Amino acid sequence: MTGYGKAECELAQKKVTIEIKSLNSKQMDLNTRISLLFREKDLEIRRELSDRLIRGKVDFILYTESLGEDAATKINAGIVKSYYRQLEQIAADLTIQLNDNILQSILSLPEVVKNEREELNDKEWKLILVKISEAINALDQFRIQEGKVLKQDIIANVQAITSLLSEVDQYEEERVTRIKEKIYEGLKDIAIEQVNENRLEQEMIFYLEKMDVNEEKVRLLNHCNYFLETIELNEPVGKKLGFIAQEIGREVNTLGSKANHIEMQRLVIQMKDSLEKIKEQLLNVL
Q1: Which residue in 215, 224, 209 sits closest to 254, CA to CA?
Q2: Where are the alpha helices (DSSP H) in the chain?
Q3: Is the pTM of this model over 0.85?
Q4: pLDDT tens digits, one per residue of 213-266
Q5: 267/271 Cα distance (integer angstroms)
Q6: Residue ranges of domains in the chain
Q7: Residues 120-147, buried b or exposed e (16+ Cβ, 10 A)?
Q8: Which of 4, 57, 232, 264 could form a disulfide with 29 if both were Cys (CB 3.0 to 4.6 A apart)?
Q9: Are 35 and 61 spatial neighbours (Cβ–Cβ below 8 Å)?
């Protein structure tokens, strides 16, 4: 979601600069700073940014620089002359001379300088809209380049989980044998002389079924494959991938709780490490 875009254009008497910066955020968090002349277009700008940028902490800046005579600020020549003539009359009555700084003093008097609010020109606004679109496109290109690198890193971590999952099978037979041995040793410790073999076998089967991890392995593999399919879609999939990652985490945790085997636990820890990297990277994905 991080990116930066900039566009500029020159109008009759001013230069307009547009800058957009985007950082990671779960929602659209939009802040605009717009020159007074274009303030009435704030809602229109916000709609365009929200529709195209989807998510992120977005800062939008539109400012202008004067390139010539500033028509918005004018000196009222008639009032200046009136003030000067009055001051000349007062100076003559008092038999004093007006000094060279009198004009500067007059400029500070009321209504000498007047500010006229510049009207927004529709033709100029259409050009600015084009430049806003260019700035958004530039930001999108920045995001796309970053996304390509991020995508490969995320895929590599998902593939690491599936690779670790494929190593679980080699420990399955040993794990079941150890569970059975642990149960028999427990019976010896409590000094049970007579054991109903049929009942023991039934309880053993029940316990081993509870500890069976085949369903977790199948679901985990399916979730990983679904994740890899979804990440290839040409649409915003960040939230969807986040939900799939949660399901992956649920199966990994269950696999770890049932493992009862040191090597399988190590594989689960490595899966969790890859999953945490995926979750962290998904914060950058739209």
Answers
A1: 215
A2: 42-53, 77-93, 102-107, 122-166, 172-189, 197-211, 214-230, 238-259, 262-282
A3: no
A4: 888 899 999 999 999 999 999 888 888 999 999 999 999 999 888 887 888 899
A5: 6
A6: 3-69+122-141, 73-115, 146-282
A7: eeeebeeebeebbebbbebbbebbeeeb
A8: 57
A9: no
